[in-house]
Amino acid sequence: MEKVIEKIRETVIQGNGEEMSQLIRSALEAGMPAGRILSGGLIDAMHVVGRHMKSGEMFIPEVLLSARTMQKGVEMLSPCLSDSEPAQEGVIVIGTVEGDLHDIGKNLVSLMLQGAGFKVIDLGINVMPSAFVEAVRIHKPQVLGMSALLTTTVMKMKETLIALETAGVRDQVKVMAGGAPVTQNLVEDFGADGYGSSAPIAVDLARKFVESPS
Amino acid sequence: MKANYVQFASPQFRVLSDKQLEDLHLASLHILERTGVSIYSDEAVDLLDGAGADVSNPKRVRIPCYVVERALRDAPKNIVLCTRDGHPSLFLNGSRTYFGGVPDLPDILDPYSGKRRPHYAEDTADMVRLIDALPNVVWIMNSGLAHGVPPELSEKVAQVQCLLNTIKPFVPSPINVGGLKDILELVQIVSGGMENLKRRPFLLNSVEPSTPLVQSREALEMSLLCAELGIPNIVFNMLMAGATSPATLAGTLAVANAELLSHLTIIQLKRPGAPVIYGGEPNIMDMRTSIFTYGAPELCLLSACLTELTHSYGLPMFGMAGSTDAKIIGAQAGIEIMHQVLTSALSGADLVHNIGLMDHCTMISPELAVLSDEIVDMIRITMGGLEINEETLSLELINQIGPGGHYLNEEHTLKWFRRFWVPSVMDRTQLTQELTQDEVLHCEDLLRHKTRKILETHTPQPLPEEMVGEIKSLEASWFRAAGHNYPYPSRPQSL
Questions:
Q1: CA–CA separation, B296 vs B324, rounded Å?
Q2: Are B175 and A152 within 8 A, CB to CB?
Q3: Domain B12-385+421-495 homologous superfamily, CATH
Q4: Would the CB atoms of B242 and A61 count as touching at under 8 Å?
């Protein structure tokens, strides 16, 4: 069984969707638990991809290909998973703050979070603090991610955190922030929980927040 | 007497043929007609509507080519900028290259400690004063943000320091039309009113489209105000091939040009003849680290191509050079900067910004600015070409000296050797018993000494005291209006 899991892992790392689909199909038919395929074949594969990305062995478009392949695998497995085996690692709401139209960094983080097995609710660009609050109420994410490129829109992150406090939902969610003008100091100043200085680090942070919510 | 004789006054450099430039132009027009651009300003949408564009969906405004072509005809082909005291200084018409500063960096590589630290308002004052002394860096930007000052005031504080510390023309980077109005109020204290500022402009505004194909409200409002007032305005974009534009470089250029053309068109519709400087930094995304990589050779190539396209429109080009992804001053910085300076000069970009930028646009270095000044000085020789005539061929002298002789003692040598380039921070010493490898001053040492010397001794031309008083009062009023204390905290002594 380990060999099959290993092969599935390889196909995800290589971004070979067709071969992965065949292997998953035969594994399921052979009675392998879907949850085992998910964790050993897909989630673990993306951990490896994340390491390769950090070390510079894999390039972003290749990482995203693996992520798309992995998600195809998740779709195949979802109907077979039991209630106690969620298809996703967690739920994340993400958006670019009010007044800012820039989103390439956010989009990259969003894609990589999906690749890591998270359900991502992307609110898009120019997101008002109230819209972030509403999304937290509706989707009940474990993590909220805010992005900004402009030095002035960075202040909207502070406003959003205040809005979450006022609405009484601040302690329900871990907040991380990223973008060119964001620094560790600013993040601490604002009262956010983490600084996503790059896309892989944002993914690591999200994993950490979900695994140990305190 | 010569006939039909052509002499090159500089190297002749081209990346793209006329036909290729036409292909790019047509590709951009196609994008504007078929794909469209998002326009986030009602006034801009109305202007385009009036001109015949399809504005049924403001997120996808489609602009017919004849509207764009008319704008290109209307845009002025010669823009002159002055020094703070009104002397014509920069002639932006495709004939000269002017290297200048960089804005908004959060950190500085301290020239004394050699360490990285936050950038303060006093650092803008120092950087601007430094550039004031550098002969080859002839205009400025605000260098960096003012740490410790509220973000909405940081850029304005930096502009005050720009105005106080140099007479060279400067380019502020306000983030919205309110900020621009404040800057205009500030500079009018020196120019003595808007009419004088328009007649002898010593500042240009700058705005950026949001790639791909989005024109934000903030950028458009500023451009429309500049058009109305006749203030020269730089429209420049930054693209990352593979991320915000196609991974193929030609596609990236087509998108870049489409964004710029649409923004230019809106400006010319507002006021035909409004002065615009056109350009940007088309680039790749580094696919290992995701940064906008300043060291990329692709950036140099794409800048050169965009320069050629901009010049084919008769417009002045806003380019880049003098920047590195490195975090220290060493081989990487030297390589990347030389590549950029050389390609900018060879392609003839007009207003070339970014002198001093390090670590993918997060840090400025005074020493790097001094190094870049040296590099620009060096390539003047390359860019000067070669003059071939009777005197320079010196055939009589060659014959007189004959085989096996030497030229050291000749009057001719005394006259002409002075044109040889002499470095100020490059090491060309010969080692001796007294001067060993460990004792010789290397480039990095010479750079450090020269930078510190300028910072410690150079005094820029001051403004009259009453003007300085008025400027400080205006600055204080900004702080009070925003509910903050003034004066703002100073740069700590301990740094």
A1: 9
A2: yes
A3: Trimethylamine methyltransferase-like (3.20.20.480)
A4: yes
Contact between chains at A154 and B151 (C-beta distance less than 8 A) = yes
Q: Tell me whether residues B214 and A101 touch, CB distance under 8 A.
A: yes
Domains detected in chain A: 2-80 (1.10.1240.10), 90-211 (3.40.50.280)
Task: Look up tokens 């099959």; give the residue.
Answer: A4
Q: How many Cβ atoms sit within 10 Å of the Cβ of residue B390?
A: 8
Helix, strand, or coil here: B306? helix
Strand order of the β-sheet with A143-147 is A118-122, A90-96, A143-147, A174-178, A194-195
Contact B143, B105 (CB under 8 A): yes
Q: Are B256 and B237 in contact (CB under 8 A)?
A: yes
Q: How far does the CA of residue A28 sit from the closest CA of chain B (Å)?
A: 35
Q: Give B-chain residues touching A102 at CB under 8 angstroms.
A: 210
Model confidence over B320-331: pLDDT tens digits?
999 999 999 999
Domain limits, chain B = 12-385+421-495, 390-419
Angle value at C-alpha A154, between B104 and A96, nearest 5 degrees? 115
**ipTM here:** 0.88
Query: How many angstroms separate the CA of residue B41 from the nearest CA in chain A?
Result: 13
**B373-411 per-position pLDDT tens digit:** 999 999 999 999 999 999 999 999 999 999 999 999 999
CA–CA gap between residue A41 and residue A50 (Å, rounded):
15
pLDDT of residue A84: 73
How far is the C-alpha of B176 from the C-alpha of B240, rounded, in Å? Answer: 24
Query: Nearest-CA neighbor of B425 among B376, B381, B463, B476?
Result: B376
Residues in B touching A157 (Cβ below 8 Å): none
Q: Do A60 and B287 touch (CB under 8 A)?
A: yes
The pTM of the full predicted model, rounded to 2 decimals, is 0.94
The encoded tokens of residue A94 equal 């993400």
Two tokens, residue B386:
């070669």
3-state secondary structure of A65: helix
Chain B residue with minimum CA distance to A64: B287
Q: What are the DSSP calls for B98-111, one per residue?
A: EEB----BSEEE-T
Chain B hits for A101, Cβ within 8 Å: 40, 210, 214, 216
**Closest listed residue to residue A27, CA positions, set A47, A11, A57, A7:** A7
Across the interface, whether the CB atoms of A104 and B240 are under 8 A apart is answered yes
